[in-house]
Task: inverse folding
């Protein structure tokens, strides 16, 4: 028996129609009312399969940022 159905491949979305990916928030899930923080790494660190070098910027939960900052992995906030 021969299959005579045609298979079509979906067209790839153009950049204008592509949906932008949400920015990944590192660390545990945000609690109600929390907003993610942008942080700068002070030392090399591997989180969730991604390598971050000193000076790299990422977004993470405030609780996780506080913990990493206390351990010296993140640059101190300017304020």
Result:
């Amino acid at each position: 028996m021969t299959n005579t159905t045609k298979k079509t491949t979906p067209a790839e979305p153009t950049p204008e129609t592509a949906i932008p990916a949400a920015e990944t928030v590192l660390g545990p899930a945000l609690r109600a009312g929390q907003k993610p923080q942008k942080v700068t790494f002070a030392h090399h660190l591997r989180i969730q399969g991604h390598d971050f070098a000193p000076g790299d910027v990422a977004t993470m939960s405030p609780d996780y940022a506080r913990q990493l900052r206390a351990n010296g992995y993140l640059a101190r906030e300017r304020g």
DSSP finds one helix and four strands in the chain.
